[in-house]
Design brief:
This protein has 373 residues and is an alpha/beta fold. The chain contains 12 helices and 14 strands. The strands form 4 sheets. It has an 8-stranded parallel β-sheet. The chain has a two-stranded antiparallel ribbon with strand order 1-2. A two-stranded antiparallel ribbon has the order 3-4. Strand 13, helix 11 and strand 14 form a beta-alpha-beta unit. Helix 1 runs antiparallel to helix 12 and helix 4 packs parallel to helix 12. It is globular and about 65 Å long. The two termini are 36 Å apart. About 3% of the residues have low confidence.
Length: 373
């Protein structure tokens, strides 16, 4: 886990270790093309929400307990009944082949090796079949968008269920795509050698088709999606349904009432509505509303093991990382993603021990100093 730095005088190369997630971020920024870096880094509008996702963690203080015998620690947990090695999974992010030639296949192998959950994006540059073939024993959920042509969504659900995906993650915060200024300036498009593989050949493209948006024809997402569509989705599948994109207690209550199995508290990495809250800032109200009836997860802004600890202390069952996985890919493909996950696991284990927690069951709200929130 190091990069070579050459000094000019002697021409000798020194190895510089990548020791934290921001080191991987800096490496990715240096080595990816500007348009690709801008695509991954983008937030909506002025990027206030994107940036606040990170800053919010720095406002939260921990209350460590001491003399608790932390000679043995256990980071394992379960999500939807499946055991994972530690409570960090990979959030759905698009176009992994932009960062590394093997793309999502490398991500799948890394998460299989580490034994955690990988949420595959609809907008993958490898097909769900290729991903399963590359990591047959991996634990995977599939992230779903709903298209105006519902048959497309129905076909994808049937495909992933048959392939052994363990849950559907319905993204609900994209009736329309947020305004990402640099993507507009860069006229971002997938390079010709890459495709949204899961949807290849599924859209009727004619000379009258609107312009392309993120690899598929524009205006294909269905903005009429509503709560009744949860029942439609349940009628298609026996898989658990997780809703990704909830930020209020009111919607959390509706999610429970509509019989979903989980919620991912998410603002889409700050890429949709700018001016919405940081996810960690609304986690408590959602956990209090849900009261253990379904599992609550979170993404957005996780950069250290202590961030993971704070999210679990505030009631998240598991967290998911988006951009850091892409930085790992950009560094060294499968090995880079494994290193990013390993660093987070090591940091999380250390933060747990330094806070007096021996296992995830011992992490609770008493760890958080509320007076300073």
């Amino acid at each position: 886990m190091s990069i070579a730095i050459c000094n000019r005088e002697g021409g000798r190369c020194a190895e510089m270790a990548l020791v934290c997630l921001t080191d991987f971020e800096e490496y990715a920024k240096e080595h990816l093309s500007k348009a690709t870096w801008d695509y991954y880094a983008a937030g909506a509008d002025e990027c206030c929400t994107r940036d606040d996702n990170l800053l919010a963690y720095k406002r939260i203080r921990l209350r460590p307990r001491i003399l608790r015998d932390v000679s043995v620690s256990d980071t394992r947990t379960t999500v939807q009944g499946t055991e994972i090695s530690f409570p960090v999974g990979i959030a759905p992010t698009a176009f992994h082949c932009l960062a590394w030639h093997e793309g999502e296949v490398a991500t799948a192998r890394a998460t299989e090796a580490v034994n955690t959950c990988y949420i595959t994006s609809t907008y993958s540059t490898c097909s769900v079949e290729e991903i399963v073939a590359a990591a047959p024993n991996g634990f995977r959920w599939f992230q779903l968008y709903v298209y105006r042509d519902r048959k497309l969504s129905e076909q994808i659900v049937a495909r992933v269920e048959a392939l052994g995906y363990k849950a559907l993650v319905l993204t609900v915060d994209v009736p329309y795509t947020g305004k990402r200024r640099n993507d507009i300036r860069n006229q971002f498009k997938l390079p010709p050698h890459l495709k949204v593989k899961n949807l290849d050949g599924m859209f009727q493209v004619t000379e009258f088709t609107d312009s392309e948006e993120y690899g598929i024809p524009a205006n294909t997402l269905d903005p009429s999606i509503s709560w009744k569509d949860i029942y439609w989705l349940q009628s298609l599948t026996r898989l658990p349904i997780i809703i990704k994109g909830i930020l209020t207690k009111e919607d959390a209550e509706l999610a429970v009432e509509h019989g979903v199995q989980g919620i991912i508290v998410s603002n889409h990495g700050g890429r949709q509505l700018d001016g919405g809250p940081a996810t960690i800032d609304v986690l408590s109200e959602i956990v209090e509303t849900v009261q253990g009836r379904i599992e609550v997860y979170l993404d957005g802004g996780i950069r250290t093991g202590s961030d993971v600890l704070k999210a679990l202390a505030l009631g998240a069952k598991c967290v998911f990382i988006g951009r850091p996985a892409v930085w790992g890919l950009a560094y060294k493909g499968e090995e880079g993603v494994r290193e990013v996950l390993q660093i987070l696991n090591d940091e999380f284990r250390l933060s747990m021990a330094l806070s007096g927690c021996r296992n995830v069951a011992e992490i609770n709200r008493n760890l958080i100093q509320f007076a300073k929130l």
